[in-house]
Backbone:
């Protein structure tokens, strides 16, 4: 064997090793490209899920804001009604004491004047009994009794 031929055999061996390495590398690159395509599909799915979640959070925020607003309105309305009822109960109790005492005010609790805005509010809601009403008959006997007691208390 001549030194030139030995050198050529060495180059052939190195070329065969390079070809084998290139084939292995080609398979790995093909697998990486396939994984990259799947990764892109996964990323698109994740993006869609994120968009749906953001839309859901925005809708939930809108609903919670609307619910809070409605709840605040109802709470304000119920507080006003509770104040009106407390005033009416107090007036009714004083009127009942007055009626039980034969028309004289009770000595233990002098009748106090109510604030004008509360009287106006109650008068607007209940009415004085002299104006025409859309619904002339009260809905229940309790309501009728309350209207009568208010009319008597106002001196009418």
Residues:
């Amino acid at each position: 064997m001549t030194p030139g031929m030995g050198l050529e055999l060495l180059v052939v061996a190195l070329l065969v090793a390079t070809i084998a390495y290139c084939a292995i590398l080609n398979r790995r690159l093909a697998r990486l490209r396939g994984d990259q395509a799947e990764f892109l599909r996964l990323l698109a799915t994740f993006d869609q899920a994120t968009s749906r979640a953001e839309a859901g959070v925005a809708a939930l925020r809108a609903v919670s804001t609307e619910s809070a607003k409605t709840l605040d309105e109802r709470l304000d309305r119920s507080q006003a009604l509770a104040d009106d009822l407390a005033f009416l109960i107090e007036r009714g109790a004083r009127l009942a004491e007055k009626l039980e005492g034969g028309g004289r005010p009770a000595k233990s609790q002098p009748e106090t004047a109510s604030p004008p805005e509360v009287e106006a509010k109650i008068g607007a809601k209940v009415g004085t009994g002299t104006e025409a009403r859309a619904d002339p008959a009260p809905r229940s006997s309790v309501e009728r009794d309350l209207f009568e007691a208010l009319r008597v208390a106002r001196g009418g």
